[in-house]
Amino acid sequence: MNNLPQPAPAVTVVQLPDGTYTYADAAHLPAPQAAPQQIVQHIHQAPPDRTVQRIALGSGVGAGAVAAGVYFGPLLVGALTAIAANLAVLAFLVVVLAWGVVTVVRSVGGTDGQAAAKSLSKSRRR
Prior knowledge:
The chain is mainly alpha-helical.
């Protein structure tokens, strides 16, 4: 390698498999093999659907109103769900209490209670 003159900047000196040295054009040399890139993929929860917010921004509503919709929208859904659950429990309690009152009146009422129950059932049939 000492007997070769200094190559031009675009030319390099390479060693051949038989041990001799020669000039090689850098543009024709194979590219050095880089290590495969490691891809780290983070799995997150899907983002919320922002279609309504995009439509609102497109129609001229300000960003503050859109931010309020993003914040208060799920809050409103949660509050309405809680109210609906409370009303369902209340309706169940009303049904159970009405059934209990009817059962007690029929069993304790004697002949008067049974006659009242019969007259009510007859009036409902008409």
